[in-house]
Amino acid sequence: MPLRIPARLGTTAALVALLGSTVACTSTGGGDDDEVTTVTIGTLRGQPHFYAPFLYEDHATGDIDYEVVTLDTAPALNDALLSGTVDMAVGSITATVAGAAQGREVKVVAAASDGGSGFVATEGIDDITDLEGRPVGYLESSSQYVVLQLLLEEAGMTTDDVELVSLSAPDFFNAFSTGQVDAFLAPEIGVSLALGAGGVELASPYETEIGRVNIGLLASQEFIDEHPEAVQEVVDTHAATTDYMVDNQDEWLPELVEEYGGDEDVFATALDNFWLRSDLSPTYEEQIANLAAQMERLGMIDQAPAIEDVVDTSFASRDEPEDS
After folding, report:
1. Which end of the chain is more exposed for a tag (fewer CB within 10 A), N or C?
2. Short-list 47, 48, 44, 64, CA closest to 56
3. Residue 123, Cβ density class (10 Å: 0-12 exposed, 13-18 middle, ≥19 buried)
4. In a structure prediction context, what are the per-residue pLDDT tens digits for the chain, which is 324 residues long?
5. Is 109:219 a contact under the CB 8 Å cutoff?
């Protein structure tokens, strides 16, 4: 019998407490792909580009049922994949590259969302060089941190020229609005909140060689090896759900606000800064390889992993999206 997990569990701790000694099991019920009946999907809470798994059940392309588990950080999602507490996840490409560099076998099987980043400063800061000696917020082990370092380099600076302040994703707007930081390069929805409160966009975060790469649909190598047909069905469902989300924001956004709370207008502004997608095109694969190379060059990992250790191109469309 499949292990049923209540949808929309809270934290990692809550999940582990519920599963107890059975965390090594998946929700699939066995090694035979024909037995897969339920797939548990991990995602992050409170961010619109991580919302797709909540809609998988409504747009399923096969017989698999979906249970959604929300965790608090991107690295926690990858840990949950490797421990088997979730079967697949919408998670961070950067965390997956960092894990692959350490031999952790989690693969990107499809894109999920590009963008969702912003470089915001207080009024009066007009150029990146104006940040010298000022507190700048950043998110550790994120694509945004890679971009921050690349943009500082373009301005003839390094991270030593600013006062770096490490923040978690939900804390950027509060740190900005209270003056703890004068600028930050971070993920939504802190970007939209800060811009709405008088912040200014200091530079585009999408003009470096890593493009707009941000999050993807992930699975452990073990789950891929044991259940390739289930992975294919989830990727197909992810694609159908993404198509729905692109065309019907007015339908699902109110549901997201009801789920998480918050200001619908702010979420709508944040969504203008995302590019939802479900392919795994050659250009996307190249951008991930560029991200890995930059992470090595910047000292975030010892050595860039081979791209085949980060992505599995067996499942998603290889067609290039029109707006990528």
Report:
1. N
2. 64
3. exposed
4. 232 333 333 444 344 333 433 333 344 444 444 578 999 999 998 788 899 999 999 999 999 999 999 998 888 999 999 999 999 999 999 999 999 999 999 999 999 999 999 999 999 999 999 999 999 999 988 899 999 999 999 999 999 999 999 999 889 999 999 999 999 999 998 999 999 999 999 999 999 989 999 999 999 999 999 999 999 999 999 999 999 999 999 999 998 888 888 888 888 888 899 999 999 999 999 999 999 999 999 999 999 999 999 999 999 999 998 766
5. yes
